[in-house]
Amino acid sequence: MQSKLSKICLTCTAILAAVFSLQSSTTIYHHLGRKAGGMITRSGVQHDTHPSQLPYSSKRLGGISLEITDDIYVHYINLKSRPDRRKSIVHELSMMGIPFSRLDAVDVRENKTALLDCFDQSTLNKCAGRQGVKESHVKVLKKMKEHHDGDQIVLVFEDDFVWLPHVDPLSIPTTLKGFVTLFPDWKVIGLSMNILAQQSTNVTVDVSRNTTSKSRVLMINKAQCAHGFAVRASFLPVLLQTFTQCDVKKNNVAIDTCWFSLQAEGGWYGFSPQLGAQKPSYSDIEAMNVSYQLRTV
Question: Are 9 and 15 in contact (CB under 8 A)?
């Protein structure tokens, strides 16, 4: 038995070495194995998908199923009143081939007490939306802080997130595993952000359906948008405190401006081209159909 296990470990080590080989201009390639079996529940959170519903085979890399998804946890935020967005985000996340869970967003539109200090009392839609987004993210981060720690990779999505057409979502888990090895100082990885200031690296990631197209890894100095990002579990308390203290009602700001000071300290990364975007749809905040365009670098 010990001999067989040794051979398996050596085989896995050799495969991983090939997958994450470093060159002068590094590329992270994608391969993925996933767990099979019954309903997967990790960290005390009920998942939204059954493995049999995931559209990909667990046999990868010559039949060896690697536990690439260990220490990767996926959660999305969704209002009960938006089943249309829930259907959309479930479709997007299912393409990654790993379990994910839903967490209720907070709706403060009918909470008059929560809106007392809003910056504009004449029209509360935008203030209610911003406060709802803040409270939703604070709620999610508190929940994640209870169940995740150390170097675990926690993915947080808003329900209007979509992968861009060139991206193969199946590549994302393994790409993240390789990424955190190459950048041990990482705190947050933006899958889709409005990047305002950045520095380039010599690293590219292969997440595309077309293998000739790769995304450059960027060191983020300043970026907005919180609809799709990965956060290191040990950094959750810092991000939670920042969002909790962010006064979106009085200052007429969104929570994704309050993390600028954290980005200036380093450890934040993103991609060019971006990996995702916000799906054009009806916005409860704006009370109209919206289509956001991210800044590309």
Answer: no
